[in-house]
Amino acid sequence: MIRYDCDRCGVAMSANDANRFIVKLEVFAAASPIDVSLDDTENASGQLQEVLEQLKNADPNEVEDKTYRSFRFDVCDNCRKYLIANPLQRTTDS
Ligand SMILES: [Zn+2]
């Protein structure tokens, strides 16, 4: 039997446990894509060259983190309730 541990609190769960939930998190860049049109190829080429220069000196892991990251967690019912109530783990101080 496949056994899971809650990724947040560590409680044991079975594969078909009614109290096992999956949490997916995606983080990706919100910047819009480079606008490329036939009427403005010189400007688009400049933007592309600028991006390539930035990538040349960048840490590949940092580029990947800033572009797209996804996570998948198994959580128990108590942790599901906690995460739904406060998904971004906001503090009241701000
Ligand atoms: Zn839990």
Key descriptive features of the protein:
94 residues; 3 helices; two-stranded antiparallel sheet; binds zinc ion; alpha+beta
Secondary-structure map:
Blueprint: E1 3-5, E2 12-14, E3 20-28, H1 41-56, H2 60-67, E4 68-76, H3 77-85
Antiparallel strand pairs: 1-2, 3-4
Residues 6, 8-9, 11, 75-76, 78-79 line the site of zinc ion.
Description:
With 94 residues, the protein is of the alpha+beta class. It has one domain (3-85). Helix content is 35%, strand content 26%. The protein contains three helices and four strands, in the order E-E-E-H-H-E-H. The chain has helices at 41-56, 60-67, 77-85, and strands at residues 3-5, 12-14, 20-28, 68-76. The strands form two sheets. Strands 1-2 form a two-stranded antiparallel sheet. Strands 3-4 form a two-stranded antiparallel ribbon. It is elongated, with a radius of gyration of 21 Å. The protein starts with a strand and ends in a 9-residue tail after the last helix. The mean pLDDT is 87.
By helix and strand content, what is the structural category?
alpha+beta
- Overall, the morphology is elongated
Number of E strands: 4
Assess the beta-strand content as a share of residues: 25-35%
* Main sheet attributes: strand count, strand direction, barrel closure: 2 strands, antiparallel
Cofactors, ions, other ligands: zinc ion
SS field, number of helical segments: 3
**Helical content class:** 25-40%
Lateral arrangement of strands in the main beta sheet: 1-2
Using only CA atoms, what is the Rg? 21 Å
User: pLDDT under 50 segments (min length 5)?
Assistant: none
Mean pLDDT: 87
State the distance separating the first and last CA atoms: 46 Å
Order of helices and strands: EEEHHEH
- Characterize the quaternary organization of these chains: single chain
Domains, number? 1
